[in-house]
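Quick start: what a row looks like.
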Amino acid sequence: MSLFEQQWQTYRTVLEHDAMEHRAAAAATAEALQAWLAERPAHRSPPSLVDLGCGDLARMADIFRTLPLDTYTGLDLTASVLPLAARAMGEAPFPCTWQQGDLLDWAERPTPLAEGSKPERVDVIHSAFAIHHLSDSQKIQFLRGARNRIKPDGLLLWVDVFQNADDSRETYLDRYIDRVRDWPALNTLQTKAIIEHMQEFDWPAQRGTIETIAAQEGWSWRWAWRGSHGSEALAVLQPCSLKNASTP
């Protein structure tokens, strides 16, 4: 079995046993999307959606496929998952594009158009359980870049794990690792691999702090859903005036 197959088998086990509350997160995301669409003026053209860290779309394909989208773009750092995502999406009634790439690179990409022109903007940015792999400074870069890539009335849906306001990274990891050790159906090697991954790559944003930073970068913030374990959550962000912008 290849390294990818081993990692994906572990991921699928976590997903199938809903250990990270993917079902509730997906339902909350669908509700937030439908509410935004309901408020969207009828004369507007169908929205474009970019899914950063799309994975295999096991939980989200059925939701996305029913949306009145103009285009869907699925981007993931792991190229091997993109055919799985395409298969899950199936025959969508809108064009789908699949890209191997880094979500921070996408946010900071100046423009696919001519040099010096304004960036192409999208209506909806969705990212689930991916942004917490960025460092604190990279999260600021992401929020700043995504603010430049989204339309003025757009929507950023950020599903992820978050630290409590009084957490340090160490206290967060200790608590979450204790939880991982109780996850069902994982063997010893899988549990060890998840813990090692968390210790090396997980840098969840701290509630309160990240809301302040988002406001400074021109985002309004609303918690649309919080999981029962106090870590998983859905944040709904929309462009607003910059709080750190200088006044003329």
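That is the whole record. The first helix runs from residue 3 to 16. The longest strand covers residues 150-163.
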